[in-house]
């Protein structure tokens, strides 16, 4: 519930209302607790309060329950009992302006990114690549950038990998070692990802994060991501949300500390973000979390145990709501003790014991004060939302989607010229050039063969002529000799005949 002094009434304790200070809301937060302790309702109450103040929110909906934020709530026995405790006489139930999104485009507006937008680091995490394979993927992206080849969808990246592998010898000197084994491993990982349907996420139009920063009639829009199907691939879910957060960090301008944040980003099932994540990427996440608040974005992690969040990041989460934890094992008992130590002690109760005693809808709450210092922890009851608790019908969802100002903007895909088309065209040119060179070579060989045949024929003809000439000369010589001899004999006979006569 938003108050006139730009504070958010979130919970109520024995000492009265517990408010979150608006200008400290971008100092991030943590909503934590075991399954069934009320984390989802707490998220809904906080998001609803921000929305009433004109601050849009983004949240992932794991089971469909958060879709109810779009519809007015109604009185129940539980709410009726809590109203006097919270000092609320006549709650005005109402829904919040809501937009639904879905990576698969089934339960909301499609959310897409290009391969280039995702970048090699996040893509390597999504593909579960090792260090060597990640290095090769970085080289592939660098070559694509240097050659002006856009990587938009999966077919672009697959053909780019094939192109780099075929020309590895050319690229190795400039960019580094490229092995066919690493390229093959990346190709196999891409095929596995495609088989899981993740290829639908890559393409155009790419999502514009400014579409999250919208209001309607002075209220911040609740941007709800349908994540029930997305959760079947935890790596895709966490990488996708991290990409969205990175896009906000990259695209939004610096605004410093505002009276109210520009956007609140709820990161549910946050433990998935840090599971099997390299230290380099965790360091990058820490940097984004630290700096994105200067862009007016508050990030709230929702998880079951506080030790799911790395210490360096947990230290940046100033606004905390801790629901009950379970401590059946020594490890869980150690977690409870550590969680209690993160709060500023309240002398009126034992924090560690209270964590184990909290019922559904109760929590230990500590928000930052106006100077940015944490208040002492209070044992409190979380307010009830004014919107519906629980899922809406498919018909209600479809109506909201079609009435959205974004309807049709992301539903129609297009495929502009990118790496795939350019490499195919280059391949065609190479094939044409090779064909022309082969034809020229054939012509040259044919010409050479013809010239050789002509030369051989000429030589043979010349030889025949020479042989004929010699034969004629020999015949003439023989004839001349014979004629001379016969003529001589005739003359000789004539002379002798004359004498004898």
Provide a descriptive summary of the structure in words.
The strands form two sheets. This protein has a twelve-stranded mixed sheet. Strand 1 and strand 2 form a beta hairpin. With 501 residues, the protein is of the alpha/beta class. The C terminus is likely disordered. 38% of the residues are buried. The chain is 48% helix and 13% strand. The chain is elongated and about 145 Å long.
Layout of helices and strands:
Layout: E1 7-13, E2 16-21, E3 29-32, H1 39-52, E4 57-61, H2 77-86, E5 98-102, E6 109-110, H3 115-127, H4 131-146, H5 154-166, H6 168-175, H7 180-195, E7 215-216, E8 219-220, E9 222-226, H8 234-251, E10 263-268, H9 271-274, H10 279-292, E11 297-303, H11 311-314, E12 319-322, H12 330-341, H13 351-357, E13 362-366, E14 378-382, H14 394-403, H15 419-500
Parallel strand pairs: 3-11, 3-12, 4-9, 4-10, 5-6, 5-9, 10-11
Antiparallel strand pairs: 1-2, 1-14, 7-8, 12-13, 13-14
Helix pairs in contact: 3-4, 3-8, 4-7, 5-7, 5-15, 8-10, 12-13
What descriptors fit this protein?
15 helices; Rossmann fold; alpha/beta; 501 residues; 2 domains; disordered C terminus; single chain
Order of strands across the biggest sheet? 2-1-14-13-12-3-11-10-4-9-5-6
Kindly provide the radius of gyration, computed on alpha-carbon positions and rounded to a whole number of angstroms: 42 Å
What is the top-level CATH class of the largest domain? Alpha Beta
Low-confidence stretches: 495-501
């Amino acid at each position: 519930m938003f108050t006139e002094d730009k504070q958010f009434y979130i919970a109520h304790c024995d000492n009265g209302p517990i408010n979150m200070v608006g200008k400290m809301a971008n100092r991030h937060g943590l909503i934590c607790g075991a399954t069934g302790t009320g984390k989802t309702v707490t998220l809904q109450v906080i998001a609803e309060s921000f929305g009433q103040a004109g601050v849009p929110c983004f949240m992932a909906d794991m089971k469909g329950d958060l879709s109810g934020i779009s519809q007015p709530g109604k009185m129940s026995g539980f709410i009726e009992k809590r109203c006097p405790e919270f000092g609320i006489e006549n709650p005005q139930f109402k829904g919040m302006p809501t937009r639904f999104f879905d990576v698969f485009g089934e339960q909301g507006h499609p959310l897409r990114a290009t391969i280039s937008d995702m970048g090699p680091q996040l893509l390597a995490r999504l593909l579960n690549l090792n260090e060597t394979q990640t290095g090769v993927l970085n080289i592939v992206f660098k070559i694509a950038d240097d050659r002006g080849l856009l990587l938009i969808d999966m077919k672009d990246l697959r053909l780019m990998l094939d192109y780099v592998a075929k020309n590895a010898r050319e690229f190795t000197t400039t960019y580094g070692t490229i092995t066919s084994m690493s390229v093959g491993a990346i190709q196999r990982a891409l095929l596995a990802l495609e088989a899981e349907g993740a290829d639908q996420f890559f393409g155009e139009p790419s999502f514009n994060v400014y579409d999250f920063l919208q209001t309607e009639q002075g209220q911040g829009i609740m941007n709800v991501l349908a994540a029930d199907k997305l959760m079947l691939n935890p790596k895709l879910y966490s990488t996708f949300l991290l990409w969205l957060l990175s896009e906000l960090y990259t695209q939004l301008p610096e605004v410093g500390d505002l009276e109210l944040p520009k956007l609140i980003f709820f990161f549910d099932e946050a433990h998935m973000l840090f599971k099997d994540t390299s230290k380099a990427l965790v360091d990058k996440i820490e940097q984004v979390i630290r700096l994105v608040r200067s862009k007016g974005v508050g990030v709230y992690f929702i998880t079951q145990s506080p030790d799911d969040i790395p210490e360096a990041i947990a230290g940046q989460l100033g606004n905390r709501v801790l629901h009950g934890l379970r401590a059946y094992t020594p490890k869980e008992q150690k977690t409870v003790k550590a969680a209690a130590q993160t709060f500023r002690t309240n002398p009126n109760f034992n924090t560690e014991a209270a964590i184990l005693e909290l019922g559904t809808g109760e929590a230990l709450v500590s928000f930052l004060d106006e100077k940015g210092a944490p208040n002492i922890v209070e044992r409190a009851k979380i307010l009830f939302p004014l919107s519906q608790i629980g899922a809406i019908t498919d018909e209600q969802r479809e109506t909201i989607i079609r009435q959205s100002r974004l309807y049709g903007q992301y539903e129609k895909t297009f495929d502009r010229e990118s790496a795939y088309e350019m490499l195919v065209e280059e391949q065609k040119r190479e094939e044409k050039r090779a064909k022309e060179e082969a034809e020229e070579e054939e012509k040259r060989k044919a010409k050479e063969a013809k010239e050789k045949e002509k030369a051989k024929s000429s030589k043979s003809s010349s030889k025949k002529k020479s042989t004929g000439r010699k034969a004629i000369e020999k015949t003439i010589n023989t004839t001349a000799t014979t004629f001379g001899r016969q003529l001589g004999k005739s003359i000789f006979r004539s002379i002798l005949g004359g004498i004898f006569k």
